[in-house]
Structures are given as C-alpha cells and as structure tokens.
Amino acid sequence: MKTKQSLLSIIAFAAALPVAAYAQDGSVQLGAASRGLSYSQEEAAPPPEIKNPPKSWVDPDTGHRVFRLTDEPGSDSNYFNVNAFSPDGKEMMYVVNETGNIGVVDMTTLKTRIIVQAKDADHRPHAIHVGYTTPTIFYTLPTEGADPSQPADRQLSTLWAVNMETGEIRKVIDLPRRVSIVSINADETLGAGGLIEGAGPQAGYGARQAGPGGMGRRNLGEAMDKGQMMERRLAAHYPMTMFTIDLHSGKMTTLLQHDTDWLNHFQFSPTDPTLLLFCHEGMWWKVDRIWSMHTDGTKPILIHKRTMENEIAGHEWWGADGKTLFYQLHYPSGMESSFIASYNEDTGERVWLRYSPDLTSIHDNSSPDGKLFCGDGGFGTPSIFLLRPVVDKDQGTLGTDLIKPGHLEGEKLVNMAKTDIHNAHNYRLEPNPMFSPDMKYVIFRSNFFGPDYAFAVEVAKATTP
After folding, report:
1. Which domains does the chain have, with CATH numbers?
2. pLDDT tops 70 at residue 271
3. Comparing C-alpha atoms, which of 444, 414, 454 is closest to residue 57?
C-alpha cells in the first residue's frame, strides 16, 4: 500500500468510477450460494404480494409485536452498518426504491413522511447516511444541468443535505467528475470514498437489477450470480485510490493510491472524526478483509489476520462508542465455530462470542449500549434474533493479550418463515437488522408481504394480543 500523492492529478487523466455504495460482501457461502456461488431457482422469485398488509401484529411463534413502518411498496430501511437515526434518536431515515424518494419515520409515533422527492427517474437521490452530529441526511444527485444520456455527464454529481426536523435542503459541494462519497465523518467535515484508476469498470461488482424472478426496485434482492460477479471483480485487481474530501473547501486528500486490493465499505467512526474503517472486498476466504486507519494517512491496521485455510471474517461494523469494531468470524465448514468478534481501537482488547449454528445470520449488529446483539437469520435459519452475550469468567489463565471468550444466548423475535400472517421471507433480500437508539425495537426489512417494506419488532414480548 502506498500513501499520499495528489489525488487531483489522478482524476485529471483517470477514467475512474465510484465504488458502488450498495456493494455487498463475500459471505455468500453462508446462504444459498454455498451450493455453487449462486441462488437456486426456488430462491429466485419474491414471495407473492399480499394486498393491504397489516400495520402491526403479534408474531404467533415468538410473542413479539411487529410493526410495518413504511407504506410505500418497495421501501427499505438502511444497510445494517449505515447510520439511519438522528442524533437524538427520534427519527429514522428510509428509502423508497421504486421512486427514489427519501423518507423519515417518527420513532415516537411511527408515522412517516417523504422528505426528499426525486425529480424524475434520471435524477434520483442516492442516500449516504444520517449525520452523527446534526439531524442531517446526506445524499447525492446528478449535477444540475448534466445530461444523464451522456456517459461523461453521468459521472457528475453533487452532495446535498436535508434537515430531518425542518425539511430544509442545502447544497454542500459539487463533487469532481467520477467521484462519489459513501461515508461522512463524526463532525460532518469530511466524506470518504474510493475509485478505480484508469479505464476499469465501476468498483462494485454490478448493480442490483431485475433478473430471474423479477427481483427489482420493489424487491431489492441480490443478483442471482452474485458470487460469480464477485469472483471476477476480485480477480481483476484494478488499481484503486481511497480518499477523503473536505465538505467545506472541496479539497481532496489521498489515503491510499494504486492499491490493487478491492477497497470498499468505508465507514467513519461515529465518535472519532479521524478514524476510518474499510475492507478488502471479495470472497471472505480469499482476503484479509477488515482494516482501519486514520485520515492523516498513517499506515492501515489489519484488524483480523486469518490463521486457517477457509476461515472467514467480515460484515464489520462500528459499535456506538466509535472505538469498538465488531465483525463475524467463522471457522471452516464442519468445525461449527462461529463468533461475533470485537476489537477495541484504544485498548487492543479482543472478545470472541461463540454462537450455535441455529443462530446463524447474514448480518449481526450491536445495541447502543453494547450489551445486546441482533441477527437477521438466513435461508436455513429464517428468524430475526435477539442475542445476549455471556462472557466467561477470567480464572487467571497465564498469558498476555489473550482473547476473552464467551457465548451468545439467542431468542427469536420474528419468524421469517411462512406464518398465518405472511409468506416466507426470500433471503435474496438481506434484512439488515439494527437496534433503535432507545433499544425498544430491532429494525429490519422484508419482502414477506411481496414488495419490500421496513419493519420494527419490539424487543420486549407483547403484553396484549
């Protein structure tokens, strides 16, 4: 890895394209793709549409109340590690994929409103995330006056911000040609992103699009051949640049340059404006995935070094303290050892919490106080889970810098298989769980009524039907 040079000199001659913010990761072996890096035909189609789906119900198998948060078919909550909540926790962002509109849920009343409307199909806002300091949704739009029919103009975009409380919209900065940002730092002064240098294709492995089974904007499922696309992208070794951009001056700073690893999933710490998490994207068993670095360009730190063939680690996220990095860790198939692992940037402390195969999820997440976890299940374990950590007692084991062990005890919050209320969720759409700031709900998205909607399930069991 090489450090700083002038990024603007690269942009001047590079046919670079932005990292796809929606790009997922190489955990496909944990789901349907374990049978050959693609989905089977029975997993291709979304569930049948149920007209007039209920706004709330008590799950008949778990006893927890579930709320349908959004009314627009094809509406989704955020990716699991993307901040969706205002700093006071009172409002949550969501997106309407069919229209491109951005909406807000009042977490007290659970009522929704649209806060940013797409001008037309060619000028759809692309939401980044909610700011950590102010109640601001950051998003990008094609630059005003650009012609979306022209390839060069499609690479021009502008960063905007909308206040979740007042609805006031302001332009932040015009972004240089071919440049996009996917994360905003804790004090909302910097954006971060990555681009492919030269004439390579976009940095992702392909957009979500309608394919066999009709998964499209109403059903945002992963591509049928997701695994193969990721294999091809990883093998290409396109040289990439990772950068920050000052949201006041527009000055760009190179963090990494000419890096032939697939750089992706840039996530600023929610508390430290100089600390950035990113990954080496690709099939997890082929990459040392999880890295962090500071924006002064100091050398990146590898968070987890693999020690066994076919060991995988990924789906990393920041804890609410902005210092603890969490991630999934799976030993090779057959060993039945999977963990939610963590690393503290300040102390270097590591904790591994083991869970049983029946609690396996595509994504896990942590509560704001760091005392609970949630998971979204998978094709073989179709549930939204609540996970309680139990850390083993320290009995004075000899050694230094030892990993603290423990395990997770699970409870099912939502049955994602077929019930009397809904169809079975098709896990081509990843539910992406997250706790609400008050820890009253676990938020997720699902297609078990046919189109996508955002949902919330109460962590406490229902006291009334």
Report:
1. 7-458 (2.130.10.10)
2. yes
3. 414
